[in-house]
Amino acid sequence: MITYSAPGRVNLIGEHTDYNGGFALPIALPQRTSVIFTPAETDTLTVRSDLAEDPVHIPLDTTPGQVTGWGAYAAGVVWALRDSGVPVTGGTMAIRSDVPIGSGLSSSAALECAVLGALASAAGVRIDRTEQARIGQRAENDYVGAPTGLLDQLSSLFGEVSNALLIDFRDITVQPVPFDPDASGVTLLLFDSGQRHGHVDGEYAARRASCERAAAELGVPSLREVQHRGLEVLDAISDPVDARRARHVLTENERVLDFVAACAELDFAAAGGLFTASHASMRDDFEITTGHLDLIADSAVSAGALGARMTGGGFGGCVIALVPAKLTLTVGDAVRAAVTEAGYVEPEVSRVFAASGAG
Ligand code: ADP
Ligand code: MG
């Protein structure tokens, strides 16, 4: 019997920078998805989840399109693993999770990475973590059919207690950087808005296209290549909307590096300011926030948070805030009051911290 688990993640800062070859800074969450795998002499993998009524039966020679619904995430891993030459054993798998589903905390990558780790362990194969992330991404892109980058899987696989992960998407490197605000009397609060990002594929595609047009007009393969040239470079972009989208990307990359520097100096006031500046950039330049998320972020700051920002792809999901520990309850209450007053559902508020990665 093999037990393997993998965490959800939250991105501290660096939004929509991944497909522009830029920087992001996620942490692995304490919430995890765990798999208990009992291998058997069979050519089927039977998977149960505590979140689903019925088990899913996955033939080991499965191909995209065969298994749909939640089982597609596990089937996609089976398919992508075998496709990259890893032998996969059948048997039964029991899955449990306390990662919120569909909140933008990456329950999907937690599921993929836990299943992948269990199957690779059973096969007695060690796979480099970056390669595991690519296999998980292939499962999600080509089997499930969700167009996502590598951020989620890298966070779940590389997570470390009391560390954030500085990811450079130009060369796909991951560098742990100390992140332990609690030791400085500062809490990282997570507000799950309950607003789900439906129908956003078109918005995502439009943002991506804007960034690609801007880079093409500047004569570079990705916006990262003009990062060092300052914001004046944006004057050469003819479409004002594309120019604003590109400005978000360039300033956001800068904020990621400034955030890392602020954390190294334990300057959480500065770090909080960067959260708030990131939110404003996503609201005004990238236009991916909603009134609901703006209200959560603004009311957290008004109640004493050092800073707050939406995290994730946008149009719903979660807000994070850095809050002096003694104001945690005050800020939570103030946000709940402001949000319900405005007629939105009450957010789930929780304290989170950097936890360990898959294993
Ligand atoms: P997120 O990754 O932000 O939570 P996604 O839409 O990417 O949201 O992934 C959520 C989907 O992943 C669920 O709808 C379900 O199909 C699948 N999933 C994730 N965790 C589990 C689980 N523990 N059991 C069954 N399905 C899961
Ligand atoms: Mg996901």
Distance between the termini: 15 Å
Radius of gyration: 20 Å
What is the CATH C-level name of the largest domain?
Answer: Alpha Beta
Contiguous low-pLDDT stretches (5 residues minimum) are none
Q: Average pLDDT across residues? A: 97
Helical stretch tally: 9
Brief digest:
The chain is an alpha+beta fold and 359 residues long.
If you had to describe this structure to a student in words, what would you say it looks like?
This protein is an alpha+beta fold and 359 residues long. Helix content is 39%, strand content 23%. It has helices at 71-83, 107-123, 129-144, 151-158, 201-217, 240-264, 268-284, 291-302, 328-341, and strands at residues 2-13, 23-39, 44-49, 56-59, 91-97, 163-168, 173-178, 186-192, 307-311, 318-324, 348-352. Strands 1, 2, 3, 4, 5, 6 and 7 form a 7-stranded mixed beta sheet that branches. The longest helix has 25 residues, at 240-264.
List the helices and strands and how they pair.
Elements: E1 2-13, E2 23-39, E3 44-49, E4 56-59, H1 71-83, E5 91-97, H2 107-123, H3 129-144, H4 151-158, E6 163-168, E7 173-178, E8 186-192, H5 201-217, H6 240-264, H7 268-284, H8 291-302, E9 307-311, E10 318-324, H9 328-341, E11 348-352
Parallel strand pairs: 3-5
Antiparallel strand pairs: 1-2, 2-5, 2-6, 3-4, 6-7, 8-10, 8-11, 9-10
Helix pairs in contact: 1-2, 1-3, 2-3, 2-4, 3-4, 5-6, 6-7, 8-9
The protein binds adenosine-5'-diphosphate and magnesium ion (MG).
The site of magnesium ion has 4 residues, from α2.
